[in-house]
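Following the same procedure, the fold was encoded as tokens, giving this record:
***
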Amino acid sequence: MTGMNENPLDILPEVLLAASAVLGLLLGAWLPRRSQWLVGLLAALAGCMGIVTAAVAAARLDLTAFGESFTVDPVTSTSRIVVLGGVVLVLALSRGALSAHPRESEFYVLVQLSALGALVMAGAQDLLLLAAGYLLASIPAYTLAGFRKDGPGTEAALKYYVIGALLGVVMLGGITVLYAAGRATGYPLLDPALSGAPEALVTAGAVGLLAGVLFKVGAVPAHFWVPDAVQGSAAPVAAFLTTVPKIGALAALLRLGEAVLADSQMPWAAMIAVVAAASMTLGNLAAFFQDDVKRLLAYSTISQVGYLLLPVAVAGRSDLAQQSLLYYLAAYAVTNLGAFAVVCALPRATRIADYRGLARRRPLLAASLVVCLLGLVGTPPTAVFVGKLTVFSAAFDGGYAWLAVLAAVNTVASLFYYLRWIVPALSRDGGDALAEGDRPARSVAYGSAAVSLALGLAAGPVLPLLSSSLTT
């Protein structure tokens, strides 16, 4: 029997998050209702400590842990920092809405557990560990979607759960087929084995595996849950669902494409390219006609996934794939959370028309909204602008020029529905929906807009840090 390199320090950010979740669950059973915020504070501290330890680990050489089933490389380290940063922001967004809520501590625990699943997916180098991460990221998220226990929340949770359970079974079936084709589940052993396996068997297994991961990403054709789950859930939950799980799933897709399926006979790149094209196009077309702001952002995130899949399509074909995806993930996360922070700051403003006069009533919040929405378009000097340039370059470099052109056309088209929100916000007259606001959410909106601009300006020194090769 071979020994396993079981060093818990190799997965310290994940250990901190898991320990905080367990301790928070215990504390929540004993703390009085007015003191439940201490569980959120513990979660935020665990997230901040995890970011620091992930940054320290990023400076070391790549390594694998637990029999090479989990790897710590630039993909894992960047995913850790972005996921944990997103968790801290979501915790801040939920502070005002959940203050003295009877199940406040449960919310914090569920957010941490789902984020832990995203981290496991990001670093997984074994199909079974990937499946475990998928389940851990999904099950707490189902509960979060219906956390309010009202009609829309229950409907959101039910649709989210049914589609997730179905595609989860399909994913497990795909893993079984890939195991039959390659006689292994670990990526280092699976990669050479699949190159000589029957193409039809590998394709069937990859399609099944892809179905589950695309569900977590929210890409076409596994996107049907996104608009209803986002609209029906609380705004902080919607911010979480459209950001954090996607990071781990997209990192997992990049690792699968480059470390496992790049050398197989199946048309992996073409499959991802078609999904990317469909996601960005259908997401934009559906967003044109939305009046509910959360539903608009839901379709916006589907279109953003299309852009994020560009470097995944050229994984193993372009040296720019990894750094472009990781940078865009960070840019998208902070910008999308900033847009949702504005929604959280104005809980009574649910329609685009409700934002009329925002610039006059709350100029800083209006400025943050403009920065985040134009950032999602890809307007300089925001971080998403640099992210889109890098993913377009990766697509050209990988031989998918047509996909980059289609993405550029969709980017221009997306400006229309973002302007539908911006123009009323900059008008003079306003309504009663802007009278109240959530102070922690406003702070998150200001900070996210500032970070989006700062990350865009600092792209020069940041991008080279993300370009190291994947561990296999």
Remarks:
- The radius of gyration is 21 Å.
